[in-house]
Amino acid sequence: MSTTVTKKLMLFFPRCECEKPIIYHLVKDYDLIVNVFRAKVTPEEEGYLVLDVTGTEANIEQALEFVRTFNVTVNYAGKGVAWDADRCTHCGHCVPHCPTAALHVADRGTMEVAFDEAKCIECLACIKVCPYGACSSAF
Ligand code: SF4
Ligand code: SF4
Fold this sequence. Notes:
This protein has helices spanning 19-28, 57-68, 125-129; strands at 4-13, 33-41, 47-56, 73-75, 81-83, 103-107, 112-115, 135-137. The chain is α+β, with helices and mostly antiparallel strands. The longest helix has 12 residues, at 57-68. The structure holds iron/sulfur cluster (2 copies).
């Protein structure tokens, strides 16, 4: 049996109505488990979707080939939420608000805060609580 992997992705949809059928096909045709964290359609009717897909590497690659036929841009880094290390003062204020410890104290000695993008579930709590604007969202 092939090993499964999970990849976090950010998809950008040009003006179209294709998000829902695409998710359906990812599940049905490519046997992927899809976990949507966040979706938004702008007033210009462009769409953003941050999601995890779990399946075999081969199925994920084939599924993304299919997705691209809709002119959808696939960002593998999944950067819906970004953390700016230069702006962060390591005040620690966001740490207890982050439900998954994506933002965490990396060094108990210096109390340095770090961001583990893979653990981020895009709840946006850090954006609201960071006094220095170190956390931001792509959409
Ligand atoms: S968006 Fe939520 S999960 Fe992600 S780093 Fe911020 S608080 Fe943590
Ligand atoms: S609240 Fe902002 S400045 Fe403070 S540790 Fe978190 S990201 Fe850094």
